[in-house]
Amino acid sequence: MLDNQGKSPVFQGLAGRCPACGKGKLFAGYLKFADRCNSCELVFDTGDTGDGPAVLVMSIVGFLVVFPALAVEKVFKPEVWVHALLWLPLSTLLVLLFLHPARGMWYGLMFKFNAGEAVLDDEAFPVKVDTGFASGNAQEERTRENL
Q: 145, 147, 143, 139: which is closest to 127 by C-alpha?
């Protein structure tokens, strides 16, 4: 299935390409994932990247904007409206530029490491703790095996 000419799925995601084949489009819109790859038919059903790309981009943009803003404040001491006029549009532009590739990269990482939503399995967590809130009886069994 992994026929991407030896390129990393992370770099394919940065480029907005399918992490499996490297040919199809990963996105159907600016930030909306396509339903499936138009080349290899890989279904992008695990496209929930959560807040990871946004946190990464905000951290990078914050680093790129805060230090120049502090330098401008130290050297020129402009009014507050000048800072707002300079740094708010720059921050917005940088977030819009970085968010699309960051989301693709994050999906590429998820594909590479076969990551998905965590599911609690009854076999992995066999002990059921009863708090007594649901039934009102605090003396109920503490485990399924009547321990």
A: 143
